[in-house]
Write a structure and sequence with these properties.
Layout: H1 7-13, H2 18-22, E1 31-35, H3 40-55, E2 64-69, H4 75-89, H5 97-104, E3 107-111, H6 120-126, E4 133-137, H7 144-153, E5 161-165, H8 173-186, E6 192-194, H9 202-212, E7 226-234, H10 243-268, H11 277-289, E8 299-304, H12 313-317, E9 327-332, E10 344-349, E11 356-363, E12 381-387, E13 391-399, E14 408-416, H13 417-421, H14 431-441, H15 450-469, E15 474-477, H16 485-492
Parallel strand pairs: 1-2, 1-4, 2-3, 4-5, 5-6, 7-10, 8-15
Antiparallel strand pairs: 7-11, 8-9, 9-10, 11-12, 12-13, 13-14
Helix pairs in contact: 3-4, 3-14, 7-8, 8-15, 10-11, 10-15, 11-15
The structure holds 6-O-phosphono-beta-D-glucopyranose.
């Protein structure tokens, strides 16, 4: 079937301007197999992301996307299922019937048994060994090993083959090591793409641009000038619908071990020599390895209560005795030359006051105030807003206008990307779009290497054990709040305070 329209036309239909469309570099035809192709993640995120990249003109003719799952259906039925998913999850682009029809034509479906023999020869016969073959494991972690093994056995692990592995990547250090061993028996490390979707977010990558493309910050980026750093990932959603998984994971495994750890690495790492996969990942790994063990007093755990509108955590997970945390706050210390003495505070939770993720770098006060004690205490704060309302604030101290002497006031230099950069800033690919295309292009910079994942578990495992073995209490908190009071105390006792969580 002919393509619905050319690169520029398709991109324009999606709402991109010409300048942006001209920057889209199409990739050679590839085959992408989505295991778990009928599941929630595939329907909500993976296939809509592919659809948007197709609309943007990034896929050349001949590219194929193959859903693979246990249920019996033919390709026509699969296209109908995905058509519905696009209408629900793919945004405005899915209103274009021609675009949807064109995209559905590149889809196929194979019924496959991940732990048996059904469907594997059919799948192999469908794929073209001369081109990039990407296999996305959008399935439960217990199937990662069997899938890798069967791909290998049926001759689909060689050449330009690669696998994409979703979290959770293990449940602790030893299970992550075991999983790495299994995967590397069948695939080489350069073929394994461990996804942390936070690394695909535009502003998370912007962290590197802000740090390493500006001269302004680097000389101050150390414990001599930085008092502390706060990393907050606050959500308003609860865990309803994912209770079975979440009640075993909790915020420590679900968010801290991966997403917050990645943010911490990007904010704290040394400048890599180049923006290439191993140079970046080597530096991130050094940060993880330099983390001190977390002390008992430096962890606060919480669990959200219910209110008139929503059930509480225990009801959401269907476990009236659950002691799993839906909120975690930690005080973390990196023992290296750059950061010794500068604590980093991490905080994440569900059903909080707002959906707001940000990193605040709080600088020290000036060594001496020439304006005297009455001018008050002031400090610069660089805030990187990751989502929503992406942008950067730099709190500066200036003279309050008007008479009354030298009164000082802190005001933000505010750069909201959407205002500073115009519509382009609002029309960037989402994390999954970027990461999947990186898989196809063979760029591992934004994916976690085996040693990085294992080191992250090695650091967090003792902290999780502290929570479990020493029965570190899980404190109730009100939905719509900032978490348990003790999380505030975690900073107050150091003479600091959290920034307000606001939309
Ligand atoms: C996922 C976690 O990895 O990230 C979820 O499993 C969490 O619990 C989600 O809600 C947050 O992602 P985002 O992109 O909405 O910030």
């Amino acid at each position: 079937m002919p393509r619905w329209c050319g690169k520029l036309g398709a991109a324009k239909a999606k709402g991109c301007d010409e300048q942006m469309a001209s920057r889209i570099i199409p990739v050679d035809p590839f085959d992408l197999v989505v295991f778990g192709g009928t599941g929630d993640l595939a329907r909500r995120k993976i296939i809509p992301a592919l659809f948007r990249r197709w609309c943007a003109g990034q896929m050349r003719d001949g590219t194929r996307i193959i859903g693979a799952a246990r249920s019996e259906r033919d390709s026509e039925e699969y296209r109908a299922l995905i058509g519905d998913a696009l209408a629900e999850f793919a945004g405005p682009a899915a209103r274009d019937a021609d675009a949807v029809t064109g995209f559905l034509a590149i889809l196929d479906y194979v019924t496959i048994d991940a732990t048996g023999t059904l469907g594997w020869s059919e799948l192999r016969d469908l794929l073209n060994p001369q081109r990039v073959r990407a296999f996305y494991f959008s399935v439960g972690p217990e199937l990662f090993g069997p899938l890798a093994e069967r791909l290998h056995k049926h001759g689909m692990a060689d050449g330009e083959s690669r696998i994409v592995v979703e979290k959770p990547f293990g449940n602790d250090q030893s299970s992550a090591e075991a999983l790495n061993r299994t995967l590397t028996t069948h695939f080489q490390e350069h073929q394994i793409y461990r996804i942390d979707h936070y690394l695909g977010k535009e502003t998370v990558q912007n962290l590197m641009a802000i740090r390493f493309a500006n001269m302004l910050f680097e000389p101050l980026w150390n414990s001599q000038y930085v008092d502390h750093i706060q990393i907050t990932v606050a959500e308003t959603v609860g865990v309803a619908g994912r209770g079975a998984y979440y009640d075993h994971a909790g915020a420590m495994r679900d968010m801290v071990q991966n997403h917050l750890m990645q943010l911490l690495c990007l904010i704290a790492m040394e400048p890599p020599a180049k923006f290439d996969p191993d140079a970046v990942r080597d530096e991130k790994l050094k940060v993880i390895r330099a983390l001190d063990p977390v002390a008992r007093d430096d962890i606060v755990r919480g669990q959200y209560l219910g209110d008139s509108a929503n059930a509480g955590y225990r009801e959401d997970v269907g476990n009236p005795d659950s002691t799993t945390e839906s909120f975690a706050a930690l005080r973390v210390q990196i023992s290296n030359w750059r950061w010794a003495g500068t604590p980093i505070y991490l905080r994440t939770g569900k059903r909080l006051r707002a959906r707001a993720s940000e990193i605040a770098v709080v600088f020290k006060e000036t060594p001496h105030s020439i304006f005297g004690a009455e001018a008050g205490r002031h400090r610069n704060i660089l805030t990187i807003r990751l989502q929503p309302n992406e942008g950067i604030d730099l709190d500066m101290t200036i003279k309050e206008p008007g008479p009354g002497g030298m009164r000082l006031v802190d005001v933000p230099l505010d750069m909201t990307f959407a205002q500073a950069l115009g519509p382009e800033a609002q029309d960037v690919p989402d994390a999954y779009e970027r990461l999947i295309m990186d898989v196809v292009r063979g760029n591992q910079t934004l994916f976690m290497r085996c040693d990085e994942v294992e080191a992250a578990w090695a650091w967090i495992d003792p902290a999780i054990r502290l929570c479990e073995d020493e029965a570190l209490p899980v404190l109730p908190y009100d939905p719509g709040s900032s978490g348990p009071e003790d999380a505030l105390a975690l900073m107050h006792r150091d003479g600091r305070r959290w920034r307000e969580i606001k939309p």
